[in-house]
Amino acid sequence: MSTNTGTNTGTDTGNTDTGNTDTDTASGTPERTTVVPARAPWSAVVHTGETLTITDLHGNQAVDFLLYDAHDTSVRYSAPDTIHAQGGIFLTTGSVLMSNEHTPLMTVTADDVGRHDTVGGACSKESNSLRYGHHTWSQHACVDNFLAEGAKHGLGKRDLVSNINWYMNVPVEKDGTLGIVDGISAPGLSLTLRAERDVLVLVSNCPQINNPCNGFDPTAVRMTITEAAGT
Protein backbone atom coordinates (compact mmCIF):
# COMPACT_ATOMS: atom_id res chain seq x y z
CA MET A 1 0.00 0.00 0.00
CA SER A 2 1.32 3.44 -0.80
CA THR A 3 0.42 7.00 -0.02
CA ASN A 4 1.78 10.28 -1.25
CA THR A 5 0.57 13.32 0.61
CA GLY A 6 2.24 16.57 1.47
CA THR A 7 -0.24 17.90 3.98
CA ASN A 8 -0.23 17.65 7.71
CA THR A 9 -3.46 17.10 9.60
CA GLY A 10 -4.55 17.65 13.17
CA THR A 11 -7.62 16.89 15.20
CA ASP A 12 -9.54 19.79 16.75
CA THR A 13 -11.65 18.52 19.62
CA GLY A 14 -12.64 21.96 20.80
CA ASN A 15 -9.83 22.10 23.37
CA THR A 16 -8.55 25.67 23.64
CA ASP A 17 -4.97 24.38 23.40
CA THR A 18 -5.54 23.37 19.77
CA GLY A 19 -3.96 25.52 17.08
CA ASN A 20 -2.26 25.31 13.70
CA THR A 21 0.16 28.11 12.82
CA ASP A 22 2.76 28.83 10.15
CA THR A 23 5.63 30.93 11.47
CA ASP A 24 9.19 31.94 10.69
CA THR A 25 11.96 31.36 13.21
CA ALA A 26 14.51 34.02 14.09
CA SER A 27 16.71 32.61 11.31
CA GLY A 28 13.88 32.96 8.80
CA THR A 29 13.24 29.21 8.53
CA PRO A 30 9.52 28.42 8.06
CA GLU A 31 7.78 26.27 10.67
CA ARG A 32 4.40 24.53 10.94
CA THR A 33 3.14 24.21 14.51
CA THR A 34 0.18 22.24 15.83
CA VAL A 35 -0.92 21.82 19.44
CA VAL A 36 -2.46 18.34 19.72
CA PRO A 37 -5.13 18.19 22.44
CA ALA A 38 -5.15 15.58 25.19
CA ARG A 39 -6.26 12.15 23.91
CA ALA A 40 -6.25 13.25 20.24
CA PRO A 41 -4.56 11.81 17.13
CA TRP A 42 -2.37 13.72 14.65
CA SER A 43 -0.50 13.00 11.45
CA ALA A 44 1.82 14.78 9.04
CA VAL A 45 4.27 14.20 6.23
CA VAL A 46 7.77 15.32 7.22
CA HIS A 47 9.98 15.77 4.17
CA THR A 48 13.62 14.77 3.84
CA GLY A 49 15.82 17.06 5.93
CA GLU A 50 12.94 18.63 7.83
CA THR A 51 12.77 18.26 11.59
CA LEU A 52 9.87 17.40 13.87
CA THR A 53 10.03 18.69 17.43
CA ILE A 54 7.64 17.15 19.99
CA THR A 55 7.18 19.28 23.09
CA ASP A 56 5.65 17.91 26.30
CA LEU A 57 3.77 21.08 27.24
CA HIS A 58 2.54 20.09 30.71
CA GLY A 59 4.88 17.21 31.59
CA ASN A 60 4.45 13.46 32.05
CA GLN A 61 2.52 12.88 28.80
CA ALA A 62 3.20 9.79 26.68
CA VAL A 63 3.16 10.29 22.91
CA ASP A 64 2.58 7.08 20.92
CA PHE A 65 4.31 7.27 17.54
CA LEU A 66 4.27 5.33 14.25
CA LEU A 67 6.31 6.05 11.15
CA TYR A 68 6.04 5.09 7.46
CA ASP A 69 7.76 5.89 4.18
CA ALA A 70 5.48 8.59 2.79
CA HIS A 71 5.57 7.11 -0.72
CA ASP A 72 5.39 3.41 0.16
CA THR A 73 3.77 2.66 3.50
CA SER A 74 4.75 -1.01 3.30
CA VAL A 75 8.10 0.38 4.48
CA ARG A 76 7.50 1.34 8.10
CA TYR A 77 9.12 1.70 11.51
CA SER A 78 10.52 -1.55 12.89
CA ALA A 79 11.17 -1.87 16.61
CA PRO A 80 13.40 -4.99 16.17
CA ASP A 81 15.53 -3.33 13.49
CA THR A 82 15.85 -0.14 15.55
CA ILE A 83 16.80 -2.01 18.73
CA HIS A 84 19.27 -4.19 16.83
CA ALA A 85 20.90 -1.23 15.06
CA GLN A 86 21.55 0.74 18.23
CA GLY A 87 22.12 -2.15 20.63
CA GLY A 88 19.55 -1.05 23.21
CA ILE A 89 15.82 -0.66 23.83
CA PHE A 90 15.74 3.00 24.87
CA LEU A 91 15.87 5.96 22.47
CA THR A 92 17.70 9.25 22.91
CA THR A 93 19.93 11.69 20.99
CA GLY A 94 21.64 9.87 18.12
CA SER A 95 19.12 7.03 17.93
CA VAL A 96 18.14 6.14 14.35
CA LEU A 97 14.59 4.92 13.75
CA MET A 98 14.97 2.04 11.31
CA SER A 99 12.49 0.55 8.84
CA ASN A 100 11.55 -3.08 8.27
CA GLU A 101 14.06 -2.91 5.39
CA HIS A 102 16.76 -1.90 7.90
CA THR A 103 17.04 1.58 6.38
CA PRO A 104 16.88 4.87 8.33
CA LEU A 105 13.61 6.78 8.56
CA MET A 106 14.34 9.46 11.16
CA THR A 107 17.16 10.35 13.57
CA VAL A 108 16.81 11.81 17.06
CA THR A 109 18.95 14.95 16.92
CA ALA A 110 18.09 16.46 20.31
CA ASP A 111 16.47 15.15 23.48
CA ASP A 112 15.83 16.93 26.79
CA VAL A 113 14.69 13.76 28.57
CA GLY A 114 17.30 11.11 27.77
CA ARG A 115 15.24 7.92 27.53
CA HIS A 116 12.15 6.88 25.57
CA ASP A 117 10.34 3.56 25.27
CA THR A 118 10.30 1.09 22.34
CA VAL A 119 8.64 -1.95 23.97
CA GLY A 120 5.55 -0.84 25.95
CA GLY A 121 3.21 -0.83 22.95
CA ALA A 122 -0.05 1.06 22.47
CA CYS A 123 -3.06 0.83 24.75
CA SER A 124 -6.23 -0.69 23.30
CA LYS A 125 -9.72 -1.54 24.50
CA GLU A 126 -8.63 -5.19 24.71
CA SER A 127 -5.46 -4.57 26.72
CA ASN A 128 -7.25 -2.12 29.01
CA SER A 129 -9.95 -4.70 29.73
CA LEU A 130 -7.40 -7.42 30.41
CA ARG A 131 -5.23 -5.29 32.68
CA TYR A 132 -7.72 -3.03 34.41
CA GLY A 133 -11.14 -4.69 34.14
CA HIS A 134 -14.08 -4.83 31.76
CA HIS A 135 -15.39 -1.49 33.02
CA THR A 136 -12.60 0.18 30.98
CA TRP A 137 -13.84 -1.21 27.64
CA SER A 138 -15.55 2.03 26.63
CA GLN A 139 -12.45 4.15 27.25
CA HIS A 140 -10.73 5.69 24.24
CA ALA A 141 -7.32 4.15 23.48
CA CYS A 142 -4.23 4.72 21.32
CA VAL A 143 -5.16 1.97 18.87
CA ASP A 144 -8.44 3.81 18.21
CA ASN A 145 -6.46 6.98 17.46
CA PHE A 146 -4.04 5.18 15.15
CA LEU A 147 -6.87 3.53 13.21
CA ALA A 148 -8.85 6.76 12.82
CA GLU A 149 -5.85 8.85 11.77
CA GLY A 150 -4.28 6.11 9.65
CA ALA A 151 -7.49 5.72 7.67
CA LYS A 152 -6.93 9.24 6.29
CA HIS A 153 -3.81 7.85 4.59
CA GLY A 154 -5.20 4.50 3.46
CA LEU A 155 -3.84 2.58 6.45
CA GLY A 156 -5.74 -0.13 8.31
CA LYS A 157 -5.35 -2.45 11.27
CA ARG A 158 -2.82 -4.66 9.47
CA ASP A 159 -0.57 -1.63 9.04
CA LEU A 160 -0.21 -1.07 12.80
CA VAL A 161 3.12 -2.27 14.18
CA SER A 162 4.98 -1.96 17.48
CA ASN A 163 5.23 1.74 18.21
CA ILE A 164 7.50 4.17 20.01
CA ASN A 165 6.29 5.81 23.23
CA TRP A 166 7.99 9.17 23.57
CA TYR A 167 8.30 10.32 27.20
CA MET A 168 6.92 7.03 28.55
CA ASN A 169 8.95 5.49 31.38
CA VAL A 170 9.06 1.68 31.01
CA PRO A 171 11.92 0.28 33.10
CA VAL A 172 13.06 -3.32 32.67
CA GLU A 173 13.49 -5.16 35.96
CA LYS A 174 16.25 -7.69 36.66
CA ASP A 175 13.83 -10.57 36.11
CA GLY A 176 12.94 -9.20 32.67
CA THR A 177 9.51 -7.83 33.55
CA LEU A 178 8.43 -4.38 32.42
CA GLY A 179 6.95 -1.62 34.52
CA ILE A 180 4.91 1.44 33.56
CA VAL A 181 5.77 4.09 36.11
CA ASP A 182 5.78 7.85 36.56
CA GLY A 183 7.36 9.66 33.64
CA ILE A 184 10.72 11.41 33.76
CA SER A 185 9.66 14.35 31.59
CA ALA A 186 8.64 17.81 32.77
CA PRO A 187 6.70 20.76 31.35
CA GLY A 188 8.34 22.24 28.27
CA LEU A 189 10.83 19.44 27.60
CA SER A 190 11.17 18.38 23.98
CA LEU A 191 12.86 16.07 21.50
CA THR A 192 13.68 16.65 17.83
CA LEU A 193 13.81 14.18 14.95
CA ARG A 194 15.26 14.72 11.47
CA ALA A 195 13.61 12.99 8.50
CA GLU A 196 16.08 10.88 6.50
CA ARG A 197 13.47 10.49 3.74
CA ASP A 198 9.90 11.69 3.23
CA VAL A 199 8.01 10.08 6.10
CA LEU A 200 4.41 9.87 7.27
CA VAL A 201 4.14 10.29 11.03
CA LEU A 202 1.11 9.04 12.99
CA VAL A 203 0.69 10.13 16.61
CA SER A 204 -1.69 9.21 19.39
CA ASN A 205 -1.48 11.69 22.24
CA CYS A 206 -2.07 8.89 24.72
CA PRO A 207 -5.49 8.87 26.47
CA GLN A 208 -4.54 6.25 29.08
CA ILE A 209 -5.87 7.03 32.60
CA ASN A 210 -5.39 3.63 34.29
CA ASN A 211 -1.62 3.75 34.79
CA PRO A 212 0.90 6.54 35.52
CA CYS A 213 2.19 6.99 31.94
CA ASN A 214 0.24 10.28 31.68
CA GLY A 215 0.13 11.04 35.38
CA PHE A 216 -3.53 9.85 35.25
CA ASP A 217 -4.34 13.16 33.52
CA PRO A 218 -3.65 13.33 29.74
CA THR A 219 -2.53 16.74 28.48
CA ALA A 220 -1.71 18.52 25.21
CA VAL A 221 1.57 18.34 23.30
CA ARG A 222 3.02 20.56 20.56
CA MET A 223 4.28 19.38 17.16
CA THR A 224 6.62 21.69 15.22
CA ILE A 225 7.85 20.86 11.73
CA THR A 226 10.80 23.00 10.62
CA GLU A 227 11.92 23.14 7.00
CA ALA A 228 15.45 22.11 6.13
CA ALA A 229 17.90 24.99 5.89
CA GLY A 230 18.19 26.36 2.38
CA THR A 231 14.92 24.90 1.09
TrEMBL record:
It comes from the Bacteria. This is Urea carboxylase-associated protein 1. Residues 1-34 are annotated as: Disordered. Residues 35-200 form the DUF1989 domain. Pfam families: DUF1989. Residues 1-25 have a biased composition (Low complexity).
